[in-house]
Design a protein that fits this description.
Number of strands: 12
Strand order of the largest sheet: 3-2-1-4-7
Bound molecules: zinc ion
Order of helices and strands: EEEHEEEHEHEEEHHHHEHEH
Distance between the termini: 24 Å
Helix content: 25-40%
Radius of gyration: 19 Å
Oligomer: single chain
CATH class of the largest domain: Alpha Beta
Largest sheet: 5 strands, mixed
CATH superfamily of the largest domain: ATPase, nucleotide binding domain
Number of domains: 2
Shape: globular
Number of helices: 9
Structural class: alpha/beta
Length: 307
Amino acid sequence: MIVGIDLGGTKIEACLFDDDLMPLVRRRIATPIASFDDMIDGLVDQYHWACAQAGTQDLKLGIGVPGFVEKGTGRLLATNLPGTDKSLPQVLEQRLNAAIATENDCKCFALSEANGGAGDGAETVFGLILGTGCGGGVCLNGRLVRGLAGLPGEIGHLGIPVSFAERLPVLICKCGRVGCYETLVSGPGLRILGQSIAGLDIPAEEIAARAAAGEPRPAAALALWSELVCELLLTIQASIDPDQIVLGGGLSKIPDITSILDSQMQKTLMQGLPLPQLSVARFGDASGVRGAAMLHALNLTSATRKI
Ligand SMILES: [Zn+2]
């Protein structure tokens, strides 16, 4: 058995998996964010709970984090979690006496969907999260492409092209840059498009539902969002040219999302070339925690990166 944990800004989800990565039991707790030590206590509590469920105290642990574990120092770099100079993997290994693997949560998602998920069997898979933020990960033959600093797939912080400048609000991103894709293709971004284009201050899900019902103003907001997402898919096509793009996050649950984007892809992506196949995550919200557990199953622990 293996323990997977998805560490988020609001909740810590733990799941115990069998050796075939089938989920056995899961539990969510609120993330203690008052301090780094409190957050570690939450992770330790979840790990001990999973071990108790398994009836053993000696399980490997994989953790997906909403940011990066810095190469070399092991510091957690995440804007919505408490920071510290301490090494997250080292502190946890000392507390738990267990093998710890950490990886960016979008990378965990991509790994899960490339192995047994919607992208299973494809040579190159791009996992794209469109949720509270926007991020991704790249897998080649089922293995994560890590790059120098773990950045491949971190496309939410690329800039929206100037060709959109007159049609869109230009916003400051959480990363500090101006005009990142994440500011408008994420769930909060679609809401802002609804305000800006349609004069409607309603959640992204409602924009999608009212667009599907034929209301013109929400449909216009959703169409512009779709255009922007496909511009981002063009960047993915031009830089990585994946066989499969697997969508995850809250916006992947928009009804008919693949057909909405497929028709726009025909206009935006490079013409006369095979287009990547677009699909929705097979494991849904559970894909991140499954990918975290998989870090061990595929022998892809952070230890191999000499943290
Ligand atoms: Zn940004």
